[in-house]
Amino acid sequence: MKNILKITLYSVLLVVGLVSCQSDLTSLNEDPKHPSVLPSDNLLATAQFQSSYYMDTPSVNFNNYRFFTQQWAETQYPQESQYDLVTRNQPRNHFNRMYVYSLNNIKQAKINLEKEVNTPEVKANKLAILEIEEIFVWENVVDTYGDVPYSDAFKITDGVFSPKYDDAKIIYVDLINRLNNVVTKINLTANSYEKSDLVYFGNMSKWMKFANSLKLRMAMNLADEDPVLSKSTAESAIAAGVISSDLEAYKFKYDGSTFTNPVFDNLETGRDDFVPSELVINTMKSLSDPRMNVWFTKVNGVYKGGVFGDLNDPYTDYSQLSSYFRSSTTSSNLLSYAEVAFLKAEAAARGYSAGDTAANLYNLAVTASMNENGVDPISTTTYLAAHPYNASNWKQSIGVQAWIAMFNRGFACWNFTRRLDAPTLVNPPKSNLSSVPFRMPYSDQEYVLNGANVTAAANKIGGDKATTKLFWDKF
């Protein structure tokens, strides 16, 4: 029988981010071409890749966001679309990718940056990038799980091996405060990370707009839970300047060799059973949506979606995702211009000062999505005329259009469906759950390695179930 050494996740973090402390004697053996301390540049690039790839991946082994929003269906192996989150350990896998490979690298980059030679202005900008990137990952973690280790996380050197779970709203408020603080530290005339920043390549104006847009997204998630904080936060974000074009969107750019797009990896070199769901196809057909021609193939001259959660028919019997999604170099667009425009439209619909009317911002958002997907202006105008903004049922109006626009952007789409409850998602007959998922359960490893704290967190939120709603998901 093998002896198994159990190491906590938080001990692993220490190993992953290990920095050697060498005496004067051992330093004589240092190889300057292979440093023992990784430059912050490398750590930033690694964190950006890991977070972007694994937030965006459609792999059944990770986040499953596309199944939570019922936009993709499976033909041969429907377990994941039946909300089996146990067999493949998706909660554990996503948790580890975000903490170990993303947040930990950013934390270590901040430490290593202090040892690097930079002017004060450049150092401030580099630290701002690391801070905004870290907040971006934290938002994903909180919006996926709810209460999580935050204030005690990454304190292994302080002897904290069993970090407590912090209240999700307290984390949210702290993240918003951190965003408010970090944008004041940005110097638009100074340099920063360049080649190692694989999203904005050191463009601090874009980082500032991304920070404000991230703040807007968090503000809108708070709308039903804390309307006062939501309104003030959203209005300040919009006033300060959010993403206003596709060129400013947060996109991780894949080169097709060192880095390849995760959808490509799964569609072209992985599984042949992912198809657009019947709900997506039927909804878009009922609206005569021109994006269907870009996104999907036809079967015998018609679009045919897969039955969500209950399908064993051949993959070739259904419409498939077109070549539009099958490029190894397609960027992961994790905070798009279209998403920001829909958030502004929702803000205006809720009575916030968003810079324009809800109707105009709705038109802008739909147009942004059409433009992103190469739809011609005439078709866009026709579509908007047929499906104008409906003020009397704005949640349905914005919710359905945002759900369509966020196709293949699972995490962003999940935020809209949880917050606006549109379109209506029906739990599949063979589901492993009592309803559609509202959160990801905690990692199973936490019950072995941090049992007392994760159990306390589970009890506090009303049970560690995928059907337990997040604090901001009120309806």
Automatic annotation (TrEMBL):
InterPro entries: SusD-like_2, TPR-like_helical_dom_sf
Entry annotated with the keyword Lipoprotein: yes
Identification of the protein by name: Susd and RagB outer membrane lipoprotein
UniProt keyword list: Lipoprotein, Signal
Coiled-coil regions listed in the entry: none
Stored Gene3D superfamilies: 1.25.40.390
Signal peptide range in chain numbering: 1-21
SUPFAM superfamilies: TPR-like (SSF48452)
